[in-house]
Amino acid sequence: MASIRELHHQLVSKERSAVEITQEVLQRIEALEPKLHSFLCVTAEAALEQARRVDAKIAAGEEIGVLEGIPVGVKDNMCTQGIPTTCASRILENFVPPYNATVVEKLAAAGAVIVGKTNLDEFAMGSSTENSAYQTTVNPWDLTRVSGGSSGGSAAAVAAQECVVALGSDTGGSIRQPAALCGVVGMKPTYGLVSRYGLVAYASSLDQIGPFGRSVEDAAILLETVAGYDPKDATSLKVDIPQYSQTLKPNLRPKGRLRIGVIQETFGQGLEPEVETAVKNAIETLQELGAEIQVVSCPTFRYGLPCYYIIAPSEASANLARYDGVKYGMRVPDAENLVEMYGKTRAAGFGTEVKRRIVIGTYALSAGYYDAYYLKAQKVRTLIKRDFDRAFAQADVLVCPTSPTTAFKVGEKTDDPLSMYLSDLMTIPVNLAGLPALSVPCGFDSQGLPIGMQIIGNVLQESTLFEVAYAYEQSVLWSDRKPSLS
Q1: Pick the CATH number of 4-255+463-480 from 3.90.1300.10, 3.30.590.10, 3.40.50.300, 2.40.50.140
Q2: What is the pLDDT of residues 184-202, one digit of tens each?
Q3: Residue from 17, 174, 245, 403 carrying the catalytic annotation
Q4: In the annotation, is 132 catalytic?
Q5: 150 tagged catalytic
Q6: Among this protein's residues, is 475 annotated catalytic?
Q7: What secondary structure does DSSP assign to 287-298, as a single string?
Q8: Which helix (H) or strand (E) is 186 found in, with range?
């Protein structure tokens, strides 16, 4: 499957039709899904109808936008009018939203072809997509391994060319970690850059929607399409959105003009040697491209994981209280009273990991523990943000590994939640600070599994992240390698 620009040129030149491109993608989905399990819902008829509308515009001599006619996947925690939105949970098994999320509206306005809803860890809680109530999405590079999470369905679908680009959500690394494990580009934007209206909430102060692409340019095009102010989202930022894809260059700024800080705390115990080697080689490449490299310290980085696992579950315990079997979602009717119905519905509807996080969050917010846990975690969050501020006084962007390991075996960590949580060790601090960060492929281990490098920017510095990632990508061309499944 070609890039967005290449497909756009094929459409405009009438070399191919939007229907032909969509049919190719739908055929790939049909062929690969029995093995991969990336999609929870495939919207073939609606996709072909949209493709026919694009073809009609072209036939009438009308201009089309760069994303018009391009097949896109959407993570199944974003509301889609008339199309099931389950969050990969039994409690929302039959929920069909009466409205679209703002990002879905923006995709529709851009003429994109939505081919389906992608799998995820239930309510976006997980790092392997094994917590889905319906299926486990596996890794296109090795079907015995996980795709990462929680946006594993979107990452795997893009890697396997079941769609050209896809949307995911990132609360503690849920775009970047699966992007690294599946060998694609994934970006978590600045908090508030992309509207969360219609995104089913996990942790409201951390959640952010972002793009997946097989190339930096594809991810940039998708982000500039869905970003922007939305009055329906109280946390949405009133800022102009640059045309990120128009400023990409195959080389960095003049020598010495771009300062890259290497976060020293991210290299050490728990980091696989092959991941460390690949990321350090990538840093050397950036230096050869003209960047000035220096080591920076973020000493509170190591507190990110315990801080996150107090704040995020606390917010989840409040957000998920709405699923009570009354207004929407499943209901267990066999109960003598309302309270019993609540308990039975939630027991049947929520999976183990979701229950675990609700219990953790409820405990942290309870009387007598609020100050000791939740309030203290918020103070630590401030310290983490200050560490980033000090680091950005020395550097334009920061780099580190995206994930401490490559993709692990399916089932390897399901009985060890703490080991699973450590998968997001490098990504969580970025969410706590509300910063943008991008994962770009930077090599492969001895088993042929992808490795990702995380590039972190200051607030609203997405353009700089794309600049650095694109220059690196063009110098190594890791994106030319494709999984054998594809």
Answers
A1: 3.90.1300.10
A2: 999 999 999 999 999 999 9
A3: 174
A4: no
A5: yes
A6: no
A7: HHTTPEEEEE--
A8: strand 185-188
